[in-house]
Amino acid sequence: MPLYDYACPRCEHTFEALVFDDAEAVECPQCHAREVRRQLSVPAKPLTQPAPLPSACNSSGPPCGPMCGRFRG
């Protein structure tokens, strides 16, 4: 689904909108102006490696799981 970033020159509000057709009118959700500018947005860079999951915790909260060091008590 095409999600675009917009900026309103009248009230300077920035917002996102789903737009399915280029002819579809987009208006500012704050001041309802129809003259909005589509902003250039850069896609997020995908992660190259997944973040490692923690193997144990050292908190004073509840045990975090079977690998928690407090289960080995």
Report the uncertain regions. none
Radius of gyration: 23 Å
Globally, the shape reads elongated
Strand order of the largest sheet: 2-1-3
Number of strands: 3
Which helices and strands appear, and what pairs or packs with what?
Blueprint: E1 3-7, E2 14-18, E3 37-38
Antiparallel strand pairs: 1-2, 1-3
Question: What report would you give on this structure?
Answer:
The N and C termini lie far apart (51 Å). This protein has no helices and 3 strands. The mean pLDDT is 79. The chain has a domain at 1-41. A hairpin with a 6-residue loop joins strand 1 (3-7) and strand 2. It has strands at residues 3-7, 14-18, 37-38. With 73 residues, it is mostly beta strands. The chain has a 3-stranded antiparallel sheet with strand order 2-1-3, with no helix packed on it.
Short characterization:
This protein is mainly beta.
Key structural traits:
mainly beta; 73 residues; elongated; single chain; 3 strands
